[in-house]
Amino acid sequence: MGRPPCCDKFGVKKGPWTPEEDIILVSYIQEHGPGNWKAIPTNSGLSRCSKSCRLRWTNYLRPGIKRGSFTDQEENLIIHLQALLGNRWAAIASYLPERTDNDIKNYWNTHMKKKLRRMENEAVEEGTGFSNYQPIAKGQWERRLQTDINMAKQALQEALSMEKPRFLYESKPSCSSHSSSTPPSSTTYASSTENISRLLENWTRKTPKNSSKSTQHSVNNLVNVGTDSTTSSDGTITSVPNNNMVSPETGLFQVDSKPSLEERFPLSLIETWLFDENYGGANTVLDLSLDDASHELF
DNA sequence: AAGATTCTCAACCGCTAGTGG
DNA sequence: ACCACTAGCGGTTGAGAATCT
Where is this region: Disordered (predicted)? Predict the structure, then answer.
């Protein structure tokens, strides 16, 4: 007998979330803040397990989540980070603050695996060297180990310097969610609370279809009140930052943000080689520290 | 038009890490 | 050191949508 699932208790609901449940959860978090997930089902009256609530919040209802297709830049970043970190989706997601680990994982498993496989096949047919680019499983642990070593060094450096290094406060604006110099406060909480309440207001104005998908979309649109939406030619809706709004990421919901990989291993140090295909940085970094296994990368 | 197949992604499961007593 | 408990992570599943035949 294995361990019973946490949601096996009588009366605990499973499956897609309804708009009503979303509202209850958002309202509760609006009032009490995220965290203490165990208490949420009891206190909010939701017939869901704590895990389900946390997942629903982090993957869908949390403000600042971008949905829709991934940009080329995001794709490249994911490819590089996946090669570097392996399937550590949460770590990868920390470099893409607007995407959830679940989103990235899904995207990788559906789109990118296929795409990379196709590219590899094409390269094999053409006799080019692409096949050297992709293999990930082999030598993956070495890369992970190296990343961990780098992160440990960084953490040690920070600890020894007593003061948080300046670069942590100077990362790019697009990735600033975890590097704000202002600690979470009641003021920022209020800003985001406003966003959420506007969200709810808009949501009730729209008549949601009775499908969970449409609900998720509408709620998410509302969550992204700090962004402007544009519709691309393929019909997907893309959110772009709207400077007039308080970024949700700088507000209340930063409270539940964990220390990102970026904080521990600053983006500025690696972003150059991550974004620049031609830059030798990735090779340089890996070649410096790893054995020949790393050469299969890039 | 309708059935079959494939694709997508929200949600679940099970495991591990972290924390407090 | 041990145990109990919670939060978080990554792998997997399955329902619904999209596409194909």
Answer: 171-193, 225-245
pTM: 0.60
The answer to whether strand C lies under 7 Å from the CB of residue A109 is: yes
Give chain A's end-to-end CA distance (angstroms, integer): 46
pLDDT tens, residue by residue, A110-153? 888 777 777 777 777 776 554 444 443 334 444 554 554 455 45
Helix, strand, or coil (residue A165): coil
Rounded CA-CA distance A256/A265 in Å is: 20
Compute the half-sphere exposure of residue A195: CA atoms within 13 Å on the CB side of its CA. 31
The two tokens of residue A58 are: 């982090």
> Comparing C-alpha atoms, which of A275, A288, A263 is closest to residue A146?
A288
A87 Cβ within 7 A of any nucleic strand C atom: yes
The CA–CA distances, whole Å, from A257 to A120, A127, A129, A180, A273 equal 37, 46, 40, 12, 26
Phi first, then psi: what are they for A166, rounded to 5°?
-60, -35
Q: Say how far apart CA A189 and CA A26 lie, in whole Å.
A: 14
Q: Which residues pair with A204 in a beta bridge?
A: none
> Which positions of chain A have pLDDT values less than 50?
1-5, 130-142, 145, 148-149, 152, 155-156, 159-265, 277-298
Sign of the Cα torsion A240, A244, A250, A253 reads: negative
* b/e burial code for range A124-139 (CB count within 10 A of at least 16 → b): eeeeeeeeebbebeeb
State how far the Cα of A89 lies from the Cα of A203, in Å rounded to an integer. Answer: 31
A106 touches strand C (CB under 7 A): yes
Protein A212 CA to nucleic acid B10 C1', in Å?
9
Give dist(CA A157, CA A128) in Å, integer: 42
- Asked if strand C comes closer than 7 Å to A62 Cβ, the answer is no
